[in-house]
Design a protein that fits this description.
The structure holds 2 protein chains of 2 kinds.
Chain A: E1 4-11, H1 16-29, E2 34-38, E3 48-55, E4 70-73, H2 76-81, E5 91-95, H3 102-105, H4 114-124, E6 127-131, H5 133-139, H6 146-156, H7 164-174, H8 177-194
Helix pairs in contact in A: 1-6, 1-7, 5-6, 5-8, 6-8, 7-8
Chain B: E1 12-16, H1 17-27, E2 32-35, H2 43-52, E3 58-61, H3 65-78, E4 82-87, H4 88-93, H5 95-104, E5 110-116, H6 130-136, E6 140-141, H7 146-163, E7 167-172, H8 173-176, E8 178-183, H9 200-203, H10 207-230, E9 234-238, E10 242-246, H11 250-261, E11 267-272, E12 274-276, H12 280-289, E13 292-296, H13 302-313, E14 320-321, H14 336-346, H15 377-389, H16 421-432, E15 438-442, H17 443-459, E16 465-470, H18 499-505, E17 510-514, H19 519-531, E18 536-541, H20 545-550, E19 560-562, H21 572-577, E20 582-585, E21 588-591, H22 601-605, E22 611-613
Parallel strand pairs in B: 2-3, 2-4, 4-5, 5-7, 6-7, 10-11, 10-13, 13-14, 15-16, 16-18, 17-18
Antiparallel strand pairs in B: 1-8, 6-12, 9-11, 19-22, 20-21
Helix pairs in contact in B: 1-2, 1-7, 3-5, 11-14, 15-19, 16-17
Classes of the chains: A alpha/beta, B alpha/beta.
């Protein structure tokens, strides 16, 4: 089958490792060969967290620069930074809600206006799906369900061979009961926004 | 039940590389496991720790890697199947027992998991531990994917027992931290006990004994070589005249590149899975078959140099190249694009890499380095010491979360080289200079290898201050216990060792135990050490808030807020502490109440008393 290389980029605590793992689980349930790669360790202390899911006939666990089919950015500046993973055909799905790093607070950097960041992402990427994932997560009843919103947008974009029902089944079997309803709602909101 | 104890042979499960190793050990009937935790190997013992609470597997977090290796040696020599897991620099610590354990050998299979870290995702160096196989003459296996991580673990136990030698499995971070489907096999029962058979003229390594044992080791090495020549782990794939040699994760990059470039019929790949002893005859046959060879291996040109030696011995003049071809460097990990480009270049193929998005005109984006958590007690300890000792004091530090004190605005780290080095380098600095010295070490690192340095400091009359940052856990690698931890809330009853009593027992006279969130008292204690003529130890005791939360020991306190009527915008809070709960709203400092744990340190730093606990 065709290879799909999906890169997840986020900030420690946003849950992108769980999102990539769930995509891997869903692929396994569909007998789609999948490799998920994660980097643990230092990144967990508020740093940048990158993970990747490679689907199909491929055994390399990572995605080189310019070789992502889909980039999912959980934070606008991190999406922009990670555009090095993209080429002109890459689909970029990005959260528009900013999470400025502490370096900005202590005057070691400037967080560009979100409009400017989004303008740059649109100018440089082929296809962009932008959504306020935090607002949707809140609407779904759980601010921590941003990762479900982003997974929903990925499935909604139709860019990978995993359907909504399969993904939801995986979410249902792996989520704690207390969060299941909000997770599924968040997933649906994300999916709709990408349709 | 722990998911790795799922008894459904034939079923596929999505496993992390490290989980696959743990599962492989269970399928091989591992009875005994030890480690000192180290990223990227930490999830293996994390699983053993939980599994040992619901099975007969014995597992311990040992004090350091040398201890872990020796505890494991006792078990393996007695006949139990034993696994020792560590990161690459951990094997430096355990190298002493390992070298001579290779002489004595073992009875029960002993597998050492060694996780290298190319690109230094979470390490102080990127040394290539394939050299340890060469140094010790021990067999080394190198899996290339998650399924092999499980399968080779089982094979390694069998091989180890057959040769009566420890076997090293070498992984890299990428392999430890990828997930893929793994087919489960049958779990083997745990053999909880065996009996040690005395044989002092084999096991007591005095020179007369070891002379014989070295000879025995070389005989075992020859048998290992036979297995490496003829076993399933080394293989030639394809029949073409373009030769590529690959090991570990790079094998995947090579395989995918050959497929992407459509050169499968032109290429032969030599996959080295049982990489030491190097299968000389197989390599020689391969070299004779192909016209030219590219060696793809991360870090050092280990296989490349050995292949060149094999070629020389056999009079083979096939060109062999590796490091220096296109992007193949001794630095950092490789990636699929780099390997594809290199293969195309080396074999003269027309290939255009996908065009990268041009980011040269982006505005400067703010950095996002990792940071101490909101409410991390290390921030308070650093603040207090800095207030008293200022910027000119030398601050040797150590390995753990607190190494992040390197970053501004805390900027309280001047040297770190290895675990425990803060104490001993402090001895050197204080003698060699007239500068003041304050060393920082975490509680787990202190037990690991800080104690001997402190004994040295006391005995040799060194004069400096050691701050032991006691947050009640091994935080950086994921909250493992250590000898100073009360493990009751973690569901295991281990004996807790008091750092204060230990330090007193070592002969330190000037000891201060402080609660770092009480800034005034902490600063007073730090000041007292400045006056003291000798070794002072400050034990700064406060739970890692993440650990406290995870173990139900967190005392909930009200988050703080900035009273904007009182705030005069000095920004001492944000500029001196850089707590991630603080942010700027327009021109004013605000506190994110979902991140603030109420440690109150910023409130104590504020000159206007404008930071207050929230009401209600």
């Amino acid at each position: 089958m065709e290879t799909k290389r999906v890169v997840f980029i986020g900030v420690g605590g946003q849950g992108n490792l769980l999102a990539s793992r769930l995509l891997g689980e869903a692929a396994l349930s569909l007998n789609i060969p999948a490799v998920v790669s994660e980097i643990h360790g230092m990144a967990q202390r508020g740093g940048i967290v990158e993970s990747a899911v490679l689907l199909g006939d491929v055994t390399s666990p990572i995605v080189s620069n310019a070789e992502a089919d889909v980039l999912i950015g959980f934070e606008p500046v991190e999406t922009l930074r990670a555009l090095s993973k993209c080429n002109k055909d890459t689909i970029v799905i990005t959260n528009t809600h900013p999470l400025p790093p502490f370096t900005v607070s202590v005057g070691q950097g400037v967080y560009p206006p979100v409009d400017e960041i989004m303008g740059l992402i649109h100018a440089k990427a082929g296809k962009v799906i932008a959504l306020d994932g935090n607002a949707m997560a809140k609407e779904a009843g759980n601010p921590l369900s941003l990762n479900m919103v982003m997974l929903g947008a990925l499935i909604g974009s139709g860019s990978i061979p995993v359907g909504a029902e399969d993904m939801k089944k995986t979410i249902s079997t792996t989520t704690k009961k207390a969060f299941l309803e909000s997770n599924l709602k968040a997933f649906d909101l994300g999916m709709k926004s990408a349709n | 039940m722990h998911k790795l104890l799922t008894d459904t042979p034939g079923k596929e499960m999505l496993l992390l590389g490290n989980e696959a190793i743990a599962r492989g050990a269970l399928e091989a009937g591992v009875s005994f496991a030890t480690c000192y935790p180290g990223t990227p190997s930490s999830e293996i013992p994390e699983n053993f720790f939980k599994i040992s609470q619901e099975s007969d597997l014995y597992f311990e977090y040992s004090t350091n890697e040398k201890v872990a290796m020796e505890v494991g040696a006792g078990a393996a020599i007695s006949g139990l199947r034993t696994m020792v897991t560590l990161k690459h620099v951990g094997l430096n610590v355990a190298a002493d027992p390992l070298m001579t354990l290779a002489y004595t050998g073992i009875k029960g299979g002993m597998v050492i998991i060694n996780a290298d870290d190319p690109s230094l995702f979470s390490s102080q160096n990127e040394q290539d531990n394939r050299f340890y196989a060469r140094l010790s003459s021990l067999p080394m296996l190198e899996p290339t994917n998650v399924q092999e991580m499980k399968d080779m673990t089982i094979a390694a136990f069998d091989l180890s027992e057959e040769l009566a030698l420890p076997v090293i499995i070498r992984t890299t971070t990428r392999l430890n931290h990828i997930r893929a489907a793994v087919e489960l096999g049958e779990l083997k029962p745990v053999k909880a006990k065996d009996t040690f058979q005395k044989n002092p003229f084999h096991f007591v390594c005095v020179p007369a004994v070891s002379r014989n044992l070295h000879k025995l080791l070389l005989e075992k090495y020859d048998r290992a070589l036979e297995k490496s020549e003829n076993g399933p782990h080394n293989q030639i794939i394809g029949d073409g005249k373009w030769g590529i040699v690959a090991n570990g994760v790079s094998f995947n990059y090579v395989r995918d590149a050959v497929s992407d470039l459509g050169i499968g019929d032109k290429v032969s790949i030599l996959k080295l899975g049982f990489s030491w002893p190097m299968p000389k005859d197989l390599c020689s046959r391969f070299l004779k078959h192909v016209d030219k060879v590219l060696v793809v291996e991360e870090l050092e040109p280990v296989n490349e140099n050995d292949l060149k030696a094999i070629a020389q011995e056999n009079g083979i003049i096939t060109p062999i190249k590796g490091k220096g071809v296109s992007g193949l460097s001794r630095l950092f990990e490789y990636d699929p694009g780099l390997v594809r480009q290199t293969i195309a270049e080396y074999f003269g193929l027309d290939y255009t890499a996908p065009e990268m998005t041009d980011l040269s005109d982006l505005p400067a984006l703010p950095g996002r380095p990792p940071n101490l958590c909101a409410g991390c007690p290390h921030r308070a300890s650093y603040y207090a010491v800095k207030q008293v000792y200022g910027p000119d004091t030398i601050y040797p530090t150590d390995i753990g979360c607190y190494t992040l004190g390197l970053l501004p605005p805390i900027s309280m780290a001047d040297l770190v080289i290895c675990m425990g080095s803060s104490v001993s380098t402090g001895c050197g600095f204080s003698r060699a200079t007239d500068q003041k010295v304050v060393s920082f070490i975490g509680d787990s690192t202190f037990f690991h290898s800080g104690i001997t340095g402190l004994v040295n400091a006391v005995h040799n009359n060194h004069k400096f201050t050691l701050v032991i940052l006691d947050n009640g856990t091994t935080a950086m690698t994921g909250h493992q216990p250590h000898p100073g931890v009360n493990t009751d809330p973690m569901g295991v009853e281990l004996t807790q060792i008091s750092i204060e009593e230990l330090v007193r027992g070592l002969g330190v006279k000037d000891i201060h135990v402080v609660k770092p969130f009480k800034l005034k008292k902490t600063i007073e204690a730090v000041r007292a050490t400045m006056e003291y003529d000798g070794i002072s130890v400050i034990i700064s005791k406060e739970f890692c808030p993440l650990f406290a939360k995870a173990t139900g020991q967190f005392k909930k306190t009200k988050p703080f807020y900035v009273n904007q009527n009182k705030c005069k915008n000095h920004r001492d809070c944000i500029n001196l502490l850089a707590c991630p709960a603080m942010f700027l709203e327009g021109d004013q400092v605000e506190i994110d109440k979902t991140l603030c744990i109420g440690c109150s340190v910023c409130a104590q730093v504020c000159p206007e008393n404008a930071i207050l606990p929230m009401k209600g």
